[in-house]
Amino acid sequence: MRIPRTGRGGLFAVHVLRGQAQVQFMPSAVTGVIFTVALFAAGWQYGLYGLIGTALGTATAQLLGVDRSRVSAGLEGFNACLVAVAFAVFLGPGHPSTMVLAAGGCAVVTVVTAAATTLLRGWGLPTLTLPFCLTASAMTIAAPGFERVWHGGPAAAGPIRAAEGSVALAVDDVGRAFFANIAQIFLMPQWYVGLILLVGIFAASRTAGAMACVGSAVGVVTAWALGAPTARIVDGTMGYNAVLVAMALCGVLLAADRWSLGFAMAGAAAATVLGPALNALLEPAGGHSFTWPFVLTTLVFLASVPALPRLRRAAPPTVLPLTEPVASGVVLGA
Question: Is the CB of residue 330 less than 8 Å from the CB of residue 316?
Fold first, then answer.
């Protein structure tokens, strides 16, 4: 049956909203709306970059004939969303060059996603945000070399130095850090953005919402216990990878039970430690860790699952549909 033009437009909007939500594994258009509100709360320019970026990534995937089930689940939009927001954050959202490069990056990341999907499929592993990490890392490292692209920013870091600053953590610091960890997944430092995002996660799945809370708590405790600077804990840059790892390893990619809960908490702690290591490695070249700690930690932990019989892969996701359901075989974050 031929879908009317207006109907196709409505379906495309649902796919875009699911793409927004898939940044945190949720194939729900309702959650996508809430996530969009969160980005606009951080700044209207970031909201526009995220929404348009997701739309461009989704449209590029459709144009290139990517499997329809991936497009409908939002799996071709979330990396583009993050790429667009990252370009806005690091290059400045108001520059025409940023707008052009962000649009190009959203198209390129679709191709990178296809390549990563093909390469990782043989091992039964999802791509997660690997395409975003590759594209955004290339941007941050290359941009200072182009005068019409780079509009100022932090200089490349020098040799590795010991952590500096206070390590004391007050009660209100803990609260801000808890929500900022969730906000930093979208590269936003505001605690209230994280609160809105958490509402969106719970709107799609109570298990996912609970694991986001567990991951954030593990990130804060691990960073504090190891003596990370308070400023880094409070702005969420120490703990956001822990949130994603915890969600992925308990309830999203692995079945939620006591074994995967412990597994996820261990992974969240590992990702928190890996973050500063990757920053030290990438910053001298002008790079940024982005969600590399989440990607690397999750892929290593998932690769070990076949040898760990107490852990089970999760069943196909339950979706909150608006007008079109997601195919049952689609894997979140794939």
Answer: yes
**Strand, helix or coil for residue 162:** coil
Show the tokens assigned to 303: 């690769």
Cα separation, 85 vs 62, in Å, equals: 21
Q: CA nearest 140: which of 279, 253, 296?
A: 279
DSSP conformation class of 248: I
- 237 and 112 housed in the same domain: no
Do 312 and 175 belong together in one domain? Answer: yes
User: Any idea what the CATH number is for the domain that residue 216 is in?
Assistant: 1.10.3430.10
Q: Is residue 75 part of a domain?
A: yes
3-class DSSP state of 190 = coil
Find the farthest-apart pair of alpha carbons in the chain and give their distance in angstroms, rounded. Answer: 64
pLDDT value, residue 171: 87
Residue 129, sorted as left (phi over 0), alpha (psi -120 to 50) or beta, turns out to be alpha
In tens, the pLDDT along 303-313 reads 999 999 999 99
Asked if residue 32 lies in contact with residue 21, where contact means CB atoms within 8 angstroms, the answer is yes
43 and 84, same domain (yes or no) = yes
What DSSP element (H or E) covers 154? none
Indicate if 109 and 184 belong to the same structural domain. Answer: no
178 in the same domain as 126:
no
Global confidence as pTM: 0.90
Which residues does residue 313 pair with via DSSP β-bridges, in sequence order?
254
